[in-house]
Each structure stands twice: as structure tokens, then as C-alpha cells.
Amino acid sequence: MNNIKDIDNYREIFLTQQIYATIFSLTNKMQAKEAKYLHKLTSRQIMAIIAIYHLRNEEPTLNNIAKKLGTTKQSVKQIITILEKKGYVVTTPSKSDKRAVNVTVTEEGQQAITEAGKESICFFAEFSRTLTKEEMEILWILLKKLYRFDGEEMDGFEEDIDGRVGIDEKQIEREAREMAEVFGRIRNGGNKNE
Question: Where is the HTH marR-type domain (predicted)?
């Protein structure tokens, strides 16, 4: 009986290693493939700006952005430095914590993230083409469950963005409808211009 348990444990070890390797390789592959769709921002830069927009009740500090992205402050600092050189964000000392730095998206950054959203929608449609809507729902649930391996919940991006960013909600709604149409056409085997 003990032998069967060992076999089960070996299989679980193997599966865990394969899951990890697949997620690692998939992340790298997605970043490499997405680069052909994006022109001004990398996927990491996009996610940093999106994290800033989703920090509803917290200051957009390097630490808070890092927590939102599930990464380190040092990694976020590198991304923010590049975004600042491009003129897409500005950093200012926090008024509530002298050790912290707040990050604000500039108007140029808002334009760049809007363009990136339009550019990346084609990539999202391409990479999800083989999945049904139901499979995407299940995969999202499973990935969030995996994220909790250390007891920490994922602070997701599904909620509304922070009102401090000054984005025209009607414009966002129009652009979202347009992107949804393009997404649907591509996922159903067409191209973005049909």
C-alpha cells in the first residue's frame, strides 16, 4: 500500500514541476510574441501602469505597485525609471511617508497605455483562440488558486480603476466596445480589419 502512495507522490512532484515549467515558459513566450504587437510599451510596463490605475485606496508607491504585481520593489523601480525617462510617469515624494515615492501617470502615459490596449487586444485574441470561454473561466480560477500557494490572495485587476487618473469614462466605454468587436473577430478566425 505504501508503494502506491509513493507512486502518487512521485506523480504529483512530476506534475508540479511540469506546471511550474509550463507557466515559466508560457510567460516568456507570451512576452516575446506580444512584443510584435506592442510599439511603445513592454508588457511589464503596461502592467505597472495598470497597477497604478488599480490602486484605489492606496498611494501609488513603488511598494504598493510591487505588491499589486506580485514582484519586488527593486523590479518595479527599474520599470518606473524607464517609464519616467519616456515621459509616461512622474515620481514625487510621498506626503504621508518620507521614505516612499508616489508614481503618477502623465497624459503621454495615458495615451501610450490606450494605444497599448488597442495593440494588445489582437495578441490576447490570438493567444486565447484555442480556449473556449468556459475554459478561460476555469483557467482564471485555477491560476488565482495557484497564486495563493503562500496564503496570500491575489489583489486582482478586475475591479474598476481609480478615479484619480482622470480618464474619460465614455471614451473608455467606446474604445472597449471597439476592442471587443476586434477581439471577437480574431478569436473567430477573422482578422482585425474585417
Answer: 16-148
Q: Residue 192: inside a domain, yes or no?
A: no
Separation between Cα atoms, residue 30 and residue 148, nearest integer Å: 22
Write out the residue range of the structural domain in which residue 165 sits. Answer: 39-187
Asked if residue 124 and residue 70 are part of one domain, the reply reads yes
Whether 82 is covered by a domain: the verdict is yes
Q: How many domains does the chain have?
A: 2
Over residues 132-159, the mean pLDDT reads 87
Say if residues 27 and 34 touch (Cβ distance below 8 Å). no
Which residues face 90 on adjacent strands?
104
- For residue 141, give the DSSP letter: H
Predicted local confidence at residue 164, as pLDDT = 47
User: pLDDT tens digits for 48-101?
Assistant: 999 998 886 678 899 999 999 999 999 999 999 999 999 999 999 988 888 889
How many residues make up the chain in this entry?
Answer: 194
Mean pLDDT of 153-175: 65
Whether 194 is covered by a domain: the verdict is no
List, in order, residues 6 or more apart from 34 with CB less than 8 Å away.
Answer: 43, 120, 123
Give the position of cell 510599439.
Answer: 39
